[in-house]
Task: structure prediction
Amino acid sequence: MYVYVYIYCINTYFFTCIPTLYVSSCFAYTAVYPYTHIHTCTHTAPSGGLASRPGRAASPWQRPARLRASLAVCRRTGRAGPGRAGGASVCLSSMACNQAENVIKKIVREIGQECAAQGQTVSETLVAFMVKAVVLDPRNDFNVDQILMEKDVQNLIQLCVTRLLDTTNPSLSTIKMQVYFDMNYANRAALQSVFPQTEMNTFISLSKKNKEQQLKNLAMLVTGIRLYNKECGKGGSSIDDLPAILNEAIPSATQTLDEGLNTCQARAHQYAALLESMQEDQDRCTQLSSFKLKEALFNVRQYEAFLCILLSDVITSAQEVEKMNVQFTATMEQLKNTVQNKVSVNTNEVFPLFIALSNLWTGFQDEMLLLHFLTNMTNNLQQFSEIQSQLFPEDMLSSLLEGMTVKSDEERIRETKGIRVNVSDFKNQEWLFPETIDNFDQLPIQYHSFCAHAIGVKGLTLPGNPAIGILKHRERCYVFSSKEAAYLFAQDPDKFIQLNVEKAKEYAELIQLLELRHQFEDLVSYAQAGNAVRFLIKTTIKCDSSTQTDTHILPPTIVTSYEWNEWELRRKAIKLANLRRRLTHAMQTELSHMRRENSTQVYLPKDVGTQTKRDSSSNVPRPQIFLEGLRGGSSPTTHMVKVDLTRAVDET
Result:
């Protein structure tokens, strides 16, 4: 069973040019596509012919390439089998990621096995970067618009193997140096003691927490006491004098790094002089064209950059050791003054001092580990710079440089001292100078402070002089080696930036040397990649999105003042009727004084009286009636007499 691939792709990156190939139903290679959708189409054709679906072209890759990243795989069998007729389509987009990982592993594994068979052992990270470098190199003619068959993939693998086995190429040594440095270098913040303080909380939270904490404090106290006894000459003879060892080792490490820097800088100056002579003299160019001068220049420049990082760490370590020496001496003197010849001393006074000594001694031990690490890094990096020195021995360089003037980076900068661009010559460009911006020396310069014009045009890494003027373009800063280079670059910055990107595609080691990873969005550092699969696969960017459709497209015609409820209308009517009984009140405060005029309106009170026609009154007499004879008398019969004594009305 054989497999053919047709690729619909525009605007893809790196491995979009690698086809999908299936052999015996198990794919061996595939392409890595951002936002990939894979469609498998099964067709049957008699006599080994290629089947076509009804209404489609006979050759599936004759369709126009318009879709962004879709892949289709058409199987062709020698004869029709049961259940194979027809043109069923199966969407495999959910399987794309797993397929890509498996296939990339197969590609990397095959390249590694091929190199191992030739006696060269390479890491997966190095193989992954080399595959990207081969695809990026325009000289290899990998075009995403072309149809890539199995032979094209085999060509890609063969190119990678050839470059990985070319041990005489300084470019390979530079890439190996970059991989080694990124995978092994760690800054000071990452280098702590064997038992970091950050892990202590996790450790002591286990069982026997209190005992472990007490043991730790006891160990620190014992360390401080032993250090004090060593200082007093009463013990501690087995303890190494770490401050003295560091005071001897740090200058030695600094001297080694300085010598390495001077050597590689001298080499870089010589290579730059030879390359400049090739551009000025055509005969010279013909004579030196077969030499790998640019690769050698990039190698020593990268070696110089790494040595500068290590030297900076050693200088920082020396400063830390000097600071700790002062603190250690002061703490020891304070402890001596506290103890003196006393028979007993309060533990609250001496125990903190013992613990402080222990902490400082731990700091000395950390600096010893750091210095040992930096020394090993320096020694291991040297092997990656030996290829260029073997290609160009001293006697050979001397003969090539005969009659030529070799300029150092400092001399090139001194030649342009006092020269700067005229800002008035540029209308739409922003130039930065020491007097126009603060922290001028700390600006992030692109291309590792090399001339932005010389890289793409000449293929040289010449030092840029910020005093000429720093061009700020699209929020990035660029420096130049001469005023002429600055003027040429400023005329069309995007053009020269793209030239630098193309030069980095041609020489992959420039991607890290010139810090161009932002130009290649998918390219992460070797240490961040973790493994070859993560290094090659583009990360899919995901986001949440939503769309809201208007409910009422036309302007609303709703009368908001309309009210259908009768009782609500009554409530509003009563509210309006009550307004006539309301008064307007106002008051003056200190805050609002003199800010506005205030007034109050009231109804003044009136004096009102009522007059009747006449005054009259009446007085009714009080009735007075008496009854006589109710108690009886001498006779058996009672005789009652009623006497009315009420006065007449007119008598009152």
